[in-house]
Hints:
- By secondary structure, this protein is α+β, with helices and mostly antiparallel strands.
- It has one domain (2-122).
- Helices cover 42% and strands 14% of the residues.
- The chain is built from 5 helices and 4 strands.
- It starts with a strand and ends in a 20-residue tail after the last helix.
Amino acid sequence: MSQATINDHVYNISRLSVFEQLRLARKLSLFLGLMAQAENYAEKTDHDWCEAFLAITASMPEADIAQAINVCLSVVTRQSGATWAKVQEQQSGKLMFEADTGMGELLVLVRRVVDEHGLLDHFGTPRSASEGPTQA
């Protein structure tokens, strides 16, 4: 689990199950494949990442993008005073902090989930020797 501060809000990113990681990787395979080929991925700003995400996923079915974002948000909580609250209501999909969460912040959360789970490592060279798929 990791924490991220985005626009003065503190978020916790929990672990996706292996099957949820697989579902997310399949839904975003085109995007992840292209981003894995980027030589300077680690240097990309959140703005660059969001711009690439929007451009590459523009031709994908809206339902696929919505499902990928919902999978990502399912493991994100936000600090609200002394407690932590889910950012998305699981049944309805409604954002719990919609009044102060913009598209940019939402996409940065998607990036944090993708990075936290090392999903790019399955589409190219692992970012470090200890990451990426293992072979038997």
